[in-house]
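FAQ: What does the model actually see?

It sees only this:
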Amino acid sequence: MYFCTVEKKLIEHIQHPKDLRNLDAESLKSVAQELREMIIKIVASKEGHLGASLGVVELTIALHYVFNTPNDLLIWDVGHQAYGHKILTGRKEKFETNRQLGGLSGFPKRSESTFDAFGTGHASTSISAALGMAIASQLKGLEKHHIAVIGDASIASGMAFEGLNHAGVTNANLLVILNDNAIGIDPSVGALKQYLTNVKKGKQKEDNIFEALNFEYSGPIDGHNLDALVSELERLKTIEGPKFLHVITTKGKGLKQAEENQVTYHAPGKFNAETGDLLPSKNTKEPDKFQDVFGKTLVALAKKNENIIGITPAMPTGSSLKFLMETFPNRAFDVGIAEQHAVTLAAGMATQGLIPFCAIYSTFLQRAYDQVIHDVALQNLPVIFCLDRAGLVGQDGATHHGVFDIAYLRCVPNLIVAAPRNEIELRNIMYTAQMGLENPIAIRYPRGRGTLLDWKKDFESIPIGKGVQLKKGKNTAVLSIGAMANNVHEAIKGLPFAHYDMRFVKPLDDALLNQIFEAYTTIITVENGTTVGGFGSAILEFAAANGYTNKIKIKGVPDAFIEHGTTKELEQQIGLDVNVLREFFVKF
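And it is asked to produce this:
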């Protein structure tokens, strides 16, 4: 065991931060120990984001001890680190439900607690939000403190600097706390990381960048020293205007493996709470994850095509671009939490004849929508977007589901939108894309494992905009896009339904659709994306434009934000899992 076991006396009596404030400073250290143990125990069995929350235990306690939350407003950037915050703010008894269907969200959520001042999940929003709150308090004549806790990876984002830039010309009562542990999900990158490293080592000779932005700078201080944290936060409470506290922490603090393997233990899955060891996989012959199919295929293609480049915004492990980084380090770029930059960087490379594969989670490409339109599609540059985590992603919930990409991309001129149904199709559309497309393309694929053990087949090109028939039938045809083909395949077994994998949302296979509409009276579309403006909408538009009056039914993600739960639970909830789909199909 890598933490000391103590009798749980203090934390059992803390239901609210006011209970914390009744303790003496020495007792806070025992609370920190107990809080760490509780987080480790529950995340070990329920899964979740471990390392970030362990790293800010002392900071979390100090903030609620010094400030009068929830009157004073506290915002956790991204929210990976908010587990201790949730436990101390009235959700201790419910914490076992964290990220479970119907349970607590894995991220701060305004509808869940008054202590969650702002909903988070995407990076670099905290400073802007806290500044907005601080200005609102000024306008209303309210005396409140406004605190944004942001990591060294998130603060390198352009949006964070926009917030700092604005805050520096105000006299808002804003405290920005930099939680500097040199890692986000993967190690932090870029010139700002080196600047912060020099500051920590006392080697920085230039003007302090945060003082140059008109912040009262303090630090760096040890983020695991409760006495120092409480003392400095008390001092900063008395200073007017924007303030900046630089705190040094260790991600995974208190669990040896989490400290030594910070990438793995960011969200380690289930592990042994006593030893810290990861639990072994039950199945050694599982199919690869889609992200690994992408990463390994990209390496294979790059070995034959020296113009291929890989780009990702802070997700080399999550997207599996790490494989290209290991093989061709000069041809793979982690640009940090900077999706806008990633897209336009790719566009710039494409103008010079390079073939950029830009790997971004679907939900995060939303942050670079203008760049997709203006810098890529408008100029018709052949950037290859590989959209990982498309569709429902499971327990990360509403902030991370990639369900809007079909709708927000298919309206963009010049842009091809493809959705491979399995690993071989993903491999082949990547191969096709690097052969010399005249247009940009977005390739969307889901989170998790595929269905094929043997997917490393010889490459074959896929004709752009062409679908395929997977099953013949009578009267009713089901049109699916992407990996939803697997659910449809199982759901229509024994039913006289035809099944088509359309492969492309844009361009649609008009010739095939004309055949389908002439042969079947009823058309059902199935997609792992929003029904509003999505694949089904495209089919409706086709029918209207061509004068077809066939009965059309759309199945997909409803017009609502879907909460957290396992992917299977969520598919069942919204009618996309095999059993619910079959019940729906037999009605026809």
